[in-house]
Every structure is written in structure tokens, then in C-alpha cells.
Write a structure and sequence with these properties.
Number of domains: 1
CATH class: Alpha Beta
Strand content: 15-25%
CATH topology: Glutaredoxin
CATH superfamily: Glutaredoxin
Helix content: 40-55%
Number of helices: 7
Shape: globular
CATH architecture: 3-Layer(aba) Sandwich
Strand order of the largest sheet: 3-2-6-7
Largest sheet: 4 strands, mixed
Distance between the termini: 82 Å
Order of helices and strands: HHEEHHEEEHEEHH
Number of strands: 7
């Protein structure tokens, strides 16, 4: 019986807590600051998965064309060896890093995390953004013109040399449609014996 009483007393102390003062405006605002920090942390948790590319990318919380450039969405996910391989290829190539940073408004979207994106003035969560472009496997690269219209899609891993050619060509031909880009890229790859 004594054990039961001692246990109840300790449990009561635990729930009452050590602080005897009443909540103040300051302590309440600390709580809301914590929730703001938690929301911000949740919105940015995906960045750790592509931290090495951050210098070449825009913040994916607000996706838009900047300076009338084409938009490049790189869809990836955790535990995706080809996504890691793509990141590695980008880091090894000055041309790819320059293209991501200077020729496109570039964004990495990790489908393993859920967050809210302001996508050309529309709020979309990560899952809806992936569904919009029918992302079934990663990596997938989506190219948009400055108006936000899709002009080309690359599904799967693409080696450095082919990707350098694709980024350069697409950045200079944002007015073409998907079929025209595919045909011209095919011809460029054939000329360089990359097929």
C-alpha cells in the first residue's frame, strides 16, 4: 500500500511540475516562437538531403521564374542512389553548377518530405507538386518556361556530358515545345556520339 501512495505522490509531482508561477505573456509568446521555429524547421527539413547543392539552387518554398529564366525542378528522394549520383555529377561539373545557378531558376524537390510550396502564386504541397508532373521515379528533371509551362521532362539519371548539353540547349531555347526539344537534343547527342 505504501508503494502505491508513494507512486501516486511522485506522479502528482511530475504532472504539477517544478514551476509554481502562473503563465505570463512572455512565457506564452515563447511558446508561439517555438511553434514558429518548429514550423520553419519543418519547412526546411528537406534541405539537409541536398545541402551540398544549396549554393546553386533557389529556396523551393517559393518556386517561380527569376529574371525571366527557365525553371528547372529536380525531383529526388531519400534512398535514391541515382539521385545521389546526379548530385555528385553536378558537384563535379563547373558547367552544371553554372547552369543551375545562372541559366535557370533551379529547385530541388525531395519527395520524401512534405512541405508547402508557393508555386507560381499557387500553394501546393510536395505531393501535389509531384503529382502535377506525374513523377513516378527519381531523379526526374522538369523544365518550365518563364510562364511556368512545362517544355521538357527527363526521367531517370543522365550522365554529366549529356546533361550539360541538355541544360545549355534548353536554356537557350525556352520557346520550343517538348517534341522539338527532344528531336534537337537527339541530334546533338548523335553528333557527339552520345547515344
Amino acid at each position: 500500500m505504501r508503494f502505491k501512495e508513494a507512486f501516486l505522490f511522485l506522479a502528482l509531482l511530475f504532472f504539477v511540475g517544478c514551476e509554481s508561477e502562473k503563465p505570463t505573456l512572455q512565457s506564452i509568446s515563447k511558446g508561439s516562437a517555438s511553434s514558429k521555429e518548429a514550423k520553419e524547421m519543418h519547412q526546411n527539413i528537406d534541405k539537409n538531403s541536398y545541402s551540398e547543392l544549396l549554393p546553386y539552387l533557389q529556396d523551393n518554398s517559393m518556386i517561380e521564374s527569376r529574371d525571366n529564366k527557365g525553371v528547372l525542378l529536380i525531383f529526388g528522394s531519400n534512398q535514391c542512389k541515382y539521385c545521389d549520383k546526379l548530385k555528385s555529377e553536378i558537384l563535379k561539373s563547373k558547367a552544371l553548377k553554372n547552369a543551375l545557378k545562372n541559366d535557370f531558376s533551379s529547385y530541388y524537390i525531395n519527395l520524401s518530405y512534405q512541405k508547402t510550396h508557393l508555386f507560381f502564386q499557387n500553394k501546393l504541397d510536395t505531393q501535389m507538386l509531384g503529382e502535377t508532373y506525374q513523377i513516378r521515379s527519381t531523379p526526374t528533371l522538369i523544365f518550365l518556361n518563364p510562364k511556368g509551362e512545362m517544355i521538357f521532362k527527363i526521367v531517370g539519371f543522365m550522365g554529366r556530358e549529356k546533361l550539360e548539353i541538355a541544360l545549355e540547349f534548353i536554356s537557350e531555347n525556352l520557346n520550343l515545345d517538348e517534341e522539338q526539344i527532344a528531336e534537337k537534343l537527339y541530334n546533338l547527342y548523335a553528333q557527339k556520339s552520345l547515344l
